[in-house]
Amino acid sequence: MWWSIARREFTDLAREGHVRWGGAVLCGLFLVALLSGWQQQRLVAEEHDAASHLVRESWLSQPPKDPHSAAHYGSYVFKPRPPLTLIDAGVSSYAGVSVWLEAHKQNEFQFRPAQDRTAASRFIEFSVAGALQVLVPVLIVVLAHARVAGERQAGTLRQLVAAGVPAGTLAIGKTAGVAMALAVWLAPLSALGAAALVLSSGANAVVDDVWRTLWLCAAYLVYFVVVLTVGLGVSARSRTPALALALLVAWWAINALVVPRAATYAARAWFPTPSAFDFATAVHHETYDGLTVHEWTSRRAAALRQSLLRDYHVTRVEDLPVNFRGVDYLDREEDTSAIWDRHYGRLWAAFDGQARVHQLAGFLAPLVAMRSLSMGLAGGDVHHHRHFAQAAEAYRREFVQHLNGDLAYSSTSSELGYRGGSELWARVPPFVYRAPSLTSALVAQRESVAALAFWLLLGTGGLVVSMRTLRVD
Amino acid sequence: MVGRQIAHEWLLIRRSSTALAALALMAGVTAFALANGAAAHREQRARLSRIQAHDRDLYTQIKVELGDLERRGDPHASVSGGGMVWYLLHPDGEAPPAPNLDPRRPESASSEWVGARHALLWPRPLAWASVGQSDLFPNYSRVTIRTKPMLVASDELENPLNLLNGRFDLAFVVAFCLPLLMLPITYDLLAGERERGTLALVRSHPVSLRTVLGAKLLVCGGLCVAAVGGTTLVVSPLLSGELGTDGLGLLLLLGVIVAQTIFWLGAAALANVRATTGTRSAATLVAAWMLTTVIAPALVSTAVVSAVPVPSRVHLIAGIREAGNLPASETKRVLDAYLRNHPEATLGADAHDAGAIRGLALQDETDRRTADVRRAYADALREREALAARSSWVAPALMVQDAFGEVAGTSSTRYRRFGEQLEAFHAEWRAHFYPLVHRHAQLTARAYDEFPSFAFREEAAPLVHGRVAAAVGVLLVAGLTLIAAAMRALRFDGGGFGR
Question: Over chain A, what HEC string results?
Answer without folding.
Answer: CHHHHHHHHHHHHHHCHHHHHHHHHHHHHHHHHHHHHHHHHHHHHHHHHHHHHHHHHHHHCCCCECHHHHHHHCEEEECCCCHHHHCCCCCHHHCCCEEEECCCCECCCECCHHHHCCHHHHCCCCCHHHHHHHHHHHHHHHHHCCCCHHHHHHCHHHHHHHCCCCHHHHHHHHHHHHHHHHHHHHHHHHHHHHHHHHHHHCHHHHHHCHHHHHHHHHHHHHHHHHHHHHHHHHHHHCCCHHHHHHHHHHHHHHHHHHHHHHHHHHHHHHCCCCCHHHHHHHHHHHHHCCCCHHHHHHHHHHHHHHHHHHHHCCCCHHHCCCCHHHHHHHHHHHHHHHHHHHHHHHHHHHHHHHHHHHHHHHHCCHHHHHHHHHHHHHCCCHHHHHHHHHHHHHHHHHHHHHHHHHHHHCCCCCCCCCCECHHHHHHCCCCCCCCCCHHHHHHHCHHHHHHHHHHHHHHHHHHHHHHHCCCCC
